[in-house]
Here is the input.
Amino acid sequence: MFAVFRFVVFVVCSMVVLTPAPAQRLVSKLSATEVSINSTFAGESLTLFGNVEAPIGENGRSVTGPFDIIIVIQGPATRRVVRQKSPQLGIWLNSDEVIFSAVPAYYHVLTTGPLNKIADEEMLREQGIGLVYQAVVPQNEGQSEAEIARYQNFADQLVRLMGEAKMFGLSERRVSFLSRTFYNANLTLPANVPNGTYLAKTYLLADGELLDQKAERFVVRTTGAERFIGNAARDLPLAYGLASVLIALFTGWLGAVAFRR
Here is the structure.
């Protein structure tokens, strides 16, 4: 019986010794949880910051580094159609198209260094981090290599177009550690940023290994008279159209009367 007791104690002690120490945890915050769009909106600057701390219950434990940070800002999913034009009878017409059903309306990545140096391709693919993973190529059974290449070409063009519209972006070395554990990053949302709920996801890494991740949400919405007009145009299209016609007629009549005098 005593031998069995010693064996159990040995197994428990071995498990304690062999169990790796818990990784550091990430504490992250946003400077704002709501971005309001009005007639004078020209973009909004967001600050993303946080700290690397010891696991809960081990406040006295020292936090070691160095660390790397990847921050991903992702907007609501939208449906995108990419069309290819070609000359037909001397006129440029749409000749082909591919529909992408779930593309982020906005996507931006900020990092402490080169993305391919911070994490390996497997980790980036698993987490879906990177511009190349935002336009998913449709997968169907029996697809030929030519069909796959066609879809990939359209996906590459979609990423390019979204980048030119400032809806997609990669900003390496835009996250800075102000101390051994405290980091900070700034992101400017463009003036044409769409409404919706956004997700700010922060990844903590060390030597390419993912230690922790946190996510915060913020909302971009139109406010004031602009919101009322936008809602009316979407929810009451007939009334909005009639009101627009009446306002145009009244403005034209008023201008004619004013210039006649």
Q: What stands out?
A: The domain at 25-222 is CATH 2.60.40.2550 (Immunoglobulin-like). The two ends are 114 Å apart (CA to CA). The chain is about 30% helix and 40% strand.
